[in-house]
Amino acid sequence: MSDSTAFPAIPVTAAEIIRQVGHGAYSRGQKYMRAGNVARYNYDDDARILTGVVTGNDVTPYSTNITFPAVKTPGSLAFSARCTCPVRTDCKHAVALMLTAIDRADKARKALTSLSPTWRSTPTHDGDGAPQVPEDFKKRLEEFGVYAASQLENRAEDSAENLEDLALLNEEKLSKVPAWRRSLSHTLAARPEFGSDHARRASAALDLSFHVGTKFALGNKSKIPQVSIQARPLMMGARGKWIKGGLSWENFQRDLSRSMSSHTLYPEHERWFAEFYSVVRPWQSAYTSHRDWVSLTAVNSSLLWRVLEKARAIGLPILLDGEEINFSLADATSVELLVEPLAEAGKTDDTGLSLNPVLRWGRYSIPAEHCHKLGEPRMGFVALGGRAQARYVQSAESAKWSITRKPALDLVEESLEETTPAEGSPARPEWMNEATNIVFIPLADPLDPVAESLATSGAIEVPARDKESFFAEYYPVLSRTVHLHTVNHSVELPPVRSPQLVLTVNFEEENSHTARTAWHWEYPTHPLATEDTDEDAIEILPALGYPGEDHQDIRDTKFEYRVLKEVKVIRPAVPFTRNTYEGWATRTLLEDSLPRYREIDGVRIDFEGTVPEFKELGEQPEITVSVESTGDRDWFGLGITIKMGEWYVPFAKVFEALNAGKTHLLLGDGSYFALDRPEFMKLQELLREASSLRDKEAPLQISRHQVGMWEELEELAAETETVDAWDRQVGALLNVTNGPAPELPVGLHAELRPYQVEGFQWLNFLWEHELGGILADDMGLGKTVQTIALFARAKELWTHHQDREPTERFAPFLVVAPTSVVPNWEREIKKFAPELSVATICESQNKSKKPLARTWMDADVVVTSYALFRIDEEAYVDAGFQQPWNGLILDEAQFVKNPKTKAHRIARDIPARFKLAVTGTPMENNLMELWSMFSIVAPGLFPSARRFKDYYASPIEGGEDKKALPRLRQRIRPLMKRRTKDLVAADLPEKNDVRVDVPLAPAHRRAYDTALQRERKKVLGLLEDMDKNRFTVFQSLTTMRRMALDASLIDQEQYGSVASSKLDYLEENLPEIVADGHRALIFSQFTTYLKKVAERLDSLGITYLYLDGSTRDRARVLEAFELGNAPIFLISLKAGGFGLNLTSADYCFIMDPWWNPAAEQQAVDRVHRIGQTRNVMVYRLVSAGTIEEKVMDLKDSKAALFDAVVDEGQFFSPSLTAEQVRDLLTSSEE
User: Fold this and answer.
1) Which residues form the SWIM-type domain (predicted)?
2) Per-residue DSSP letter, 885
3) Which of 222, 535, 549, 658 is 20 to 30 A from residue 706's alpha carbon, by CA?
4) In which band, very low, low, confident or very high, does the pLDDT at 568 lie, cut at 50, 70 and 90?
5) Which of 149-158, 652-661, 1037-1046 has the highest mean pLDDT?
């Protein structure tokens, strides 16, 4: 937020808002603003961006972002609005946000005018007559966030009388205001004024009404009237009375478009009614209107209790027929039977029994029969008293009832008076007081039919003569359904024997780890525990009942449900039928489950047979890793064995158990060990990787190229067992730096730097052990001379080899390079190893009219181009089969990065002792390019492209697997050598890399914006299927890149007169650069643009040279530049990215950024490399406010991928996603 103004106003008027969004959206947004729907907002005056959060009809608020243009032109938009609501743009939320910002800025200014009325009437002056700002007034201003100068300069004395306009003083009269003060000023300006909508909000209330059905109504079988409770919303009127005020339940439906705030109720009351209505609405009858009244009688949702409790918490009044009553919500309870002595006339020694269904809370109870039903089926009760009871009786009498339910709350009172409370206990339950009129009582559990019948039947009297029959026949059954209790032991209630759930565990064989289990219930034939009871007499029933079974009537379903539920808490999937446990499952049953079952009241465990013993092995595992020959040069059999105690366990068993999700492995004698050990986890990870990279049916093997994986296996193993072939190749590679270093060949006429010597030694090792690799040194570090040193070394070893046959011919090395680089290889070999004979292939076999084999018959090195390599595939491959090439060298190996090309297939299949990829950019866009190169030089490292993509590429590029990146580095490290320019930093001059943001000329900007809207409309609909429409999408992106560079590249006839800012930049700077004796390279991806640069140079009279892919005599052009024939060299980015050494130049201009950072870096490295003696200036020209800015950001992400994998940097995803395309085609002002 800017600090330049005290109260910045947004640059838009109400008229402009209406003109852009229309009267409808403006009116709706104005209502939102007045209702206070803007939760927060922030205006950045410098960026001209207004952001905020606006509440709407949805539960989640909307985020709104509005950008105002720096310059308004006729017909242009006054603002650009984006919102997360369904409308997306120019919506009511955007209108509300802008109107709120305007309103608060206005209030903040006006507030200043009322700060000091004293100063307005009696201003003071200094000696010069200028009005002074009194200290008290300055302090008041500072409290509000404004700093006033000591005097009002250049103000006439008579103008000081009109200090009400103080807030409108020019901004330069006020000191800068800190951002935090200004923000708080705007926030405080939002406080509601007296008489505002917010201040006039009213209270709401829930009005209840009782209805009693007519006694003689059809279907009414009740003997005592049941109350039906209805409810409606009311609000407080202007005269202090509860009124309907137009309220209905429709006002609180979330799915209606109308504003809930139209009746200005308290927000917490509005939210409560919306929640209450959402709970009761599903239970309303479809045949009656519930616009004004809803019925609570049929509601069967426990959410009702939570909503009623919330009403008490927020202080929402509860009314009965428009008058406030004392309402309460009781604690949840259940129906019980209170058993009391029944005094019979003429009997004193023996009494009958009175069975009273009650709702009980400790020592307090209410007769259930006098409470009203709530819910269908019943989910609770309603107890009435006082005025509520009177209203119920009145309704019952109107419905012709002569008898009514007693006031239940009054019965609680009577019970209290007849009972002596314990010392310190309250006089009544916490949820009621003397004035309570109505209590809602939740049920802790649903009532079964027996309890429901008891709740409505009232007290039951059992005469003394029938007591014995009651206890023998009914009492055991009743006790299974409801809890029976008595007061002060006035009746002796005999204990009832409960059934038992029995689990039988059978072991048929000794030392067997197989257990067979069965569950059943045992019911006592005589449940009452007396002295004469036969405790062994039982009935056996299945653990799970079924309809029509024998003895179903004796089941205690409530008890069974409780016991079975507790068992399932321990083992949710336990089968209550016959079951078999084997192996580790048996140990889990015996040691984990059964001890917990025993703790359940009502469960018994019986064993049959000998119970096995289990013992945990706590020793440290000893791991042995072995390899064995398979007859395949590249692949070796892999074996892993684990010793635990006296047991030797093949890791295949452990691997299988880990993959199955097991936590322990059980051995034959009952001993076991845990699988969650770090060494097992690591082994599992390694073997999963090994198996995932090959066919799943293949045996466990390891390739000689998978050196990094072997290193990790060795670290885990206590012992390794290998074969000689493995030791010679892999073992030696791991110790390449410790072994005897090969001497530099005598025939090498070059002084190698230390890092180059190390590279030569590494290449020599790969060649000697017939391995392959990638030499990925930075451009300019001498990859070519290191490779030539290997050629010379190989020829010397062959020459001095005593055992070779006299007729044996030296197998030549085959170098494949871009056409333009072929002469360079010939020149470098003759320079650094003149004793080697070189055969340079410059034309195809068909064109030369002679067999290629004759051309290279006596050659030590054969150099050809990728084009000729493809054309004469058969000749190169046949030569390899007759005598394998000593080595295949793929220079600028990115030329074979696409595995679908013919060149890649030939390079992969051609027979050669070893294969080497030479490139400074082993990957440019994605990880599959890296796989492509390794599939040629080390095919056993990652055998399957699909599996490499699934295991490495997708997890790394998608950021899904943090371990995948370091694991990939570990795998490729032994077979890829990369050094950066940091090694020779001291020998290189300074390089200054400067980004130049070039603003577009006005006409160019208009043309660009028009094209952007056109391409954006065309592309955005295609992004749902990015893969299918990739070509069209990239075509549009290329169009916008060309438009950002020079509009005439798109249409010369239409835009030929539009100025190119970048050409103007070159025109301003190149003459001075050339005059100072500097030489410059100018790169562009577009050859048509390079020709426009050439035209501009012609007009300036500056000589130049030109190189692109169509240039025929490339070597002559390069030589001419090195000889100084021209100070400027125009080069296409693709043609100049490799094979050039242009250290005579010291300036480099990249005219158009590309999202392939490697291509740009290669171009720059033509200048900044060994041999450069002057400081290098690199200028990257970026068209401001265009797609080129977005390309620069995207390029950074691709550079991060390269650094992460090749240079071990950090990384985030480089994939060009649909969202990135949207961003590329977004205006810089959006």
Assistant:
1) 62-102
2) B
3) 658
4) very high
5) 1037-1046
255, 258, 259, 262 alpha-carbon torsion, rounded to 10°:
-140
Distance CA 147, CA 151 (A): 12
CA 892, CA 903: separation in Å to the nearest integer? 13
Among candidate residues 294, 324, 354, the one where a domain is terminated = 324
In-domain check, residue 1230: no
Q: Are residues 71 and 138 in the same domain?
A: yes
In whole angstroms, give the CA distance from residue 442 to residue 381: 7
Q: How confident is the model at residue 692 (pLDDT cuts 50, 70, 90)?
A: low
At 1093 the pLDDT is 93
How is residue 814 written in tokens?
A: 């085959």
Give the residue from 1154, 1107, 1157 showing the smallest Cα distance to 1130. 1107
Residues 1006 and 1140 grouped into a single domain: yes
The residue among 980, 1014, 1048 that closes a domain is 980
Least confident of 112-121, 778-787, 1063-1072: 112-121
Preceding omega of 377 cis (within 30 degrees of 0): yes
Regarding whether 291 and 226 lie in a shared domain, the answer is yes
The torsion angles phi and psi of 761, rounded to 5 degrees, stand at -65, -40
Based on the fold, state whether residues 653 and 713 are members of the same structural domain. yes
What is the number of other CB atoms lying within 10 angstroms of the CB of residue 606? 10
Residues 587 and 663 in one domain: no
Q: Which has the closest alpha carbon to 1179: 1160, 1200, 1197?
A: 1160
Residue 481 CA to residue 1174 CA, distance in Å, equals: 99
Find the domain containing 375 and state its range: 335-485
Same domain, 951 and 970: yes
Contact 760, 744 (CB under 8 A): yes
Nearest to 505 by CA among 520, 515, 493: 515
What are the residues facing 440 on neighbouring strands?
Answer: 329, 382
Largest CA distance in the chain: 141
Residue type, 848: S
Burial of 1091 (0-12, 13-18, 19+ CB in 10 A): middle
Q: 34 lies in a domain?
A: yes
Q: Is residue 814 part of a domain?
A: no
- Dihedral, CA atoms, 386, 387, 390, 391, nearest 10 degrees? -150
Mean pLDDT of the 645-649 span: 78
| Cα angle, residue 1088 at apex, residues 1085 and 1092 outer, rounded to 5° | 110
Mean pLDDT over all residues of the chain?
Answer: 79
Flag whether 508 is in a domain: yes
In angstroms, the CA 866 to CA 895 distance is 8
pLDDT of residue 818 exceeding 90, the answer is no
Domain of 958: which CATH number? 3.40.50.10810
Question: Given a cut of 90, is residue 233 above it in pLDDT?
Answer: yes
Q: CB–CB of 1185/1229 below 8 Å? A: yes
Closest residue by Cα to residue 1136 from 1104, 1161, 1169? 1161
Query: What's the mean pLDDT in 812-817?
Result: 94
Distance CA 1176, CA 1165 (A): 10
Does residue 572 sit in the same domain as residue 654?
A: no
Measured CA to CA, the distance from residue 693 to residue 828 in angstroms comes to 40
- Give how many domains the chain has, as a whole number: 7
pLDDT in tens, 96-148: 999 999 988 887 776 655 544 444 444 544 444 444 555 555 554 444 444 44
